[in-house]
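Hi R.,

As promised on Friday, here is the backbone we talked about, encoded as structure tokens. Could you run it through your design pipeline when you get a chance and send me back a sequence?
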């Protein structure tokens, strides 16, 4: 790939060039990253060993926590290291790998969140058929589908990228390798890739987001006939999921469902969905879920 592109490495400008700000951000993002890994790992372990958390909802939640931890690990360690490094570089192969990892894991999360919305729809709107419809085989298939879909999504991105020639500037105005900043450096007309990127990333996000909104609209409509207690419990679960969905999908739609250009806000948006959202997801689910909190308390009391 390096010979074909005539480029061996890229220079990342990072979040800021101010040394004092870099030191503060190094401490802040290190704490956030470690807390994100700890929180998501705690959820995965709690669900895996707790007999009370064996429903399909928690099965999906454990995989979501694993994906969140993996997604933030694809960019955050490099970003943290670059905040204190004198030379902020990444090899051509490392850049392509990072883009693949981000889109692979992002695609997995998109499909997984959609599967979780379907799970909630069946649980609330078709409760008598829930255990039959969402059996272990179906849940396993949906998780496998999310991994296969994410892999295909990431693979399509890099198959186009590795064919582009990079022979001019090697400076990327970002803290990570991302599609639009990298396409700006290609020594060819890349405007044709704008619709492609929008179709592969933006439209995927938009279709999934529309499906999710439709699912929750149907759920809210069906709650009219349920008891007050049933409505309260269903709304609590759905509110958590809708919050997580919004935190992930809205930034992705803002970045990828637009003309091929880079904007000053792109770095902040990228920080939000690669660093902040994976930290918030486990907090959103655990703070609003009594079963998970009780299981965590039992787990901690056994140690």
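Update: got your reply. Pasting your designed sequence below so it's all in one thread:
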């Amino acid at each position: 790939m390096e010979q074909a592109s005539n480029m061996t490495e890229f220079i990342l400008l990072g979040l800021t060039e101010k040394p004092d700000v870099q030191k503060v951000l190094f401490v802040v993002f290190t704490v956030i990253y470690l807390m994100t890994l700890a929180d998501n790992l705690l959820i995965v372990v709690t669900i895996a060993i707790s007999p009370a958390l064996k429903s399909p909802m928690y099965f999906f939640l454990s995989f979501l926590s694993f994906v969140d931890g993996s997604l933030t690990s694809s960019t955050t360690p490099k970003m943290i290291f670059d905040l204190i490094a004198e030379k902020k570089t990444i090899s051509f192969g490392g850049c392509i790998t990072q883009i693949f990892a981000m889109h692979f894991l992002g695609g997995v999360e998109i499909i997984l969140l959609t599967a979780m919305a379907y799970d909630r729809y069946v649980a609330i709107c078709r409760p008598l058929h829930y255990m039959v419809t969402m059996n272990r085989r179906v849940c396993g298939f949906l998780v496998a589908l999310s991994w296969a879909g994410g892999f295909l999504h990431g693979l399509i991105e890099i198959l186009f990228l590795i064919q582009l020639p990079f022979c001019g500037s090697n400076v990327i105005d970002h803290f990570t390798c991302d599609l639009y900043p990298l396409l700006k450096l290609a020594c060819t007309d890349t405007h044709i890739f704008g619709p492609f990127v929008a179709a592969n990333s933006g439209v995927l996000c938009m279709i999934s987001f529309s499906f999710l909104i439709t699912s929750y609209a149907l759920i809210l409509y069906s709650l009219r006939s349920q008891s007050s207690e049933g409505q309260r419990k269903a709304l609590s679960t759905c509110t958590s999921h809708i919050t997580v969905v919004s935190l992930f999908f809205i930034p992705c739609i803002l970045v990828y469902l637009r003309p091929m250009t880079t904007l000053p806000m792109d770095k902040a948006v990228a920080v939000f969905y690669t660093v902040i959202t994976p930290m918030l997801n486990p907090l959103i689910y655990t703070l609003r879920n009594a079963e998970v909190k009780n299981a965590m308390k039992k787990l901690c009391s056994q140690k």
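One thing I noticed while checking it: Residues 36 and 279 are 5 Å apart (CA to CA).

Thanks again,
M.
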